[in-house]
Amino acid sequence: MKRLLLPGLWCLALLSAGAPGHAESLRCNGHSAQVGDSRLSVLYKCGEPLMKDSYCAPVYYAQTLQPVPPQVAGLAVPCQPVDEWLYDRGPGNLMVTVRFRGGAVQAIEYGRVPQ
Questions:
Q1: pTM of the model
Q2: Residue 30 domain boundaries
Q3: Mean per-residue pLDDT for 56-76?
Q4: Would you say 24 and 34 are in contact if contact means Cβ atoms under 8 Å apart?
């Protein structure tokens, strides 16, 4: 059992090392934007982002990793609108991506720009 567990943990450590850092808040102009804040709140606290992106994320069946087929999702469950805002905090600071789902901050990620 130990022989199987050790390589699995090693792979997990390698995969997580390349992932961007996650945070629960972003300090801007003396304010703190956090998970759950609205777009308007983040805009007020942090100003205009360097870049904005919007896309429609696939919808998944409840408690599984199986996506709902596009034919069914289009009729019964629309895709989930997602907005991502990129903030450049200046020299010596990491870039920050703020992800919105349902009009509220879902995640704040520090590090490289998502691809």
A1: 0.67
A2: 21-110
A3: 69
A4: yes
